[in-house]
Amino acid sequence: MIRELADYERAPREAKATEEQLREALFGAHPAVFALIAEETGGAGEPGGPVGFALWFRNFSTWTGTHGVYLEDLYVTPRARGGGHGKALLAELARICVERGYARFEWSVLDWNEPAIGFYTALGAEPMDEWTVRRLSGEPLRKLAAQAMGTAVTSDSLSEATSLSN
């Protein structure tokens, strides 16, 4: 389903995660992400197999002082869309937020994905138009990281850097 999602989002070459990486991230000693799986109901009420997933992790708001949920990916297979699976996955994540006292449930959506935007709007999700996502990867990420290599960051050096930038 991850590869199907990458195809849908017009980025098939970017889906490079291996089964081993996913297993470690989800089920290793220190899980970094969590997943919910939507399943169809088969005959006699038995599960009919997975038809969707939500991959999420906790974030933190310095303004509210609480954790939140960041939904990294939501995907439902084309044949199962319209069956309530996506809404059920989102509702379960909302339930997790409320139950745990998390203040926010956030995600990103591609600006061309009108069906998803309409779906999220119908649920009451507000666009965060004033925010722009930024990303470092590849060579720019390595270049910035090289500037910190071998440098111990201490609270004194952070304070000094902060006062110099003000």
Record the SSE blueprint:
Layout lengths: L1 H7 L10 H9 L6 E8 L5 E15 L4 E11 L8 H16 L3 E4 L6 H10 L14 H9 L8 H11 L1
Parallel strand pairs: 3-4
Antiparallel strand pairs: 1-2, 2-3
Features:
166 residues, four-stranded mixed beta sheet, 6 helices, 37% helix, globular, disordered C terminus, GNAT family N-acetyltransferase, GNAT_dom, Acyl_CoA_acyltransferase
What report would you give on this structure?
The chain is an alpha+beta fold. The protein has 6 helices and 4 strands; from the N terminus they run H-H-E-E-E-H-E-H-H-H. The protein has helices spanning 2-8, 19-27, 85-100, 114-123, 138-146, 155-165; strands at 34-41, 47-61, 66-76, 104-107. The protein has a 4-stranded mixed β-sheet with strand order 1-2-3-4, with helices on one face. The radius of gyration is 19 Å and the shape is globular. The model is unreliable at 157-166 (pLDDT under 50). This is GNAT family N-acetyltransferase.
The proportion of strand residues reads: 15-25%
Low-confidence stretches: 157-166
Decide which structural class fits the backbone. alpha+beta
Q: Into which percent range does the helicity of residues fall?
A: 25-40%
**Helix/strand order, N-terminal first:** HHEEEHEHHH
Instruction: Based on Cα principal axes, name the global outline.
Output: globular
The radius of gyration is: 19 Å
Order of strands, main sheet, comes to 1-2-3-4
Number of strands: 4
Overall average pLDDT: 90
- Name the quaternary structure: single chain
Number of helices: 6
Q: Characterize the main sheet.
A: 4 strands, mixed
Distance between the termini: 47 Å
Pfam families: Acetyltransf_1 (PF00583)
Protein name: GNAT family N-acetyltransferase
Keywords: Acyltransferase, Transferase
InterPro entries: Acyl_CoA_acyltransferase, Diverse_Substrate_AcTransf, GNAT_dom
